[in-house]
Structure formats: structure tokens, C-alpha cells
Design a protein that fits this description.
7 helices; Four Helix Bundle (Hemerythrin (Met), subunit A); 144 residues; globular; single chain; mainly alpha
Amino acid sequence: MLTLWSDSWSKGHGYVPWRDVLAHLTPANALWRPGPQRHSIWAHASHVAFWREYLTASARGATVPTQAEIATKNFETPGDAAHASPELWRGAVERVERSQRLIEDALRDPAVDPDVFGGLVAHDAYHLGQIMLLRAMQGLKPLM
């Protein structure tokens, strides 16, 4: 699982890795939504990072967000493109990368039960696919 997880950031195995999927996007690309009540790439990236952080904290016995915090931080974005900057988007991508490392560190830690992360690969694959679809809907260059 550790190899599969680590490779999902930079190598991929028959799929585009997270690093490449999130690279070279403008804040406007990242915030674009196909319609009302639909999530943007930015929202999916925030959601993935949030739940990775949550699961890692839970697995290590640390404090996890409250239901109120979950409601406000899950799928969080800065709003519209007018309120976003390349620096904010870069920070969102760096958060996903940090969360990638959090999981890697937890998977290496013998004190952490790796079963806690069992569903995370499927969860992240779903959101990676959603992001790829959003990229395609915007007419962005295909990856692979």
C-alpha cells in the first residue's frame, strides 16, 4: 500500500499522478464549476487534503475537527476567481502534497493501524477522476 500511495503523487500506474493533475492550473481553472451545486478542482483538492489530514489525526489519536468545522472546511475554496491568487492556489496544491506525506509517514509508523487508510485509495481515485473530468470540460490539454 505504501508504494501504491507514494507513487500516486508522482508516478502513477496507468493513471495521471496527482502532481501532474494539479500542476499548471490557473486559479480560474481551479475554481471553474460546470454548474450550480457542483464542485471545482480547488474544492476537490481541498476535500482530499482535509480528509487525509482528518484520517491521519484520527489514526494518531490527535484531535479531529468537529462537525461544525467539517461543514465549513470540507470542499473549501476562496470563493470566486476575484478572491483567488496564484499564491493561494499554489498553497492549496502544497496542502495536498503535505497531506500525501502525512499519509506516507503514518503508513511507515508501526504504531498506526494501516487499515484506517484502506478506503482512502478508492476515495482519492474518485476525486482524481472528477478533477480529470473538470479539466476536460474546460478544454485543458489532455494528460498522460
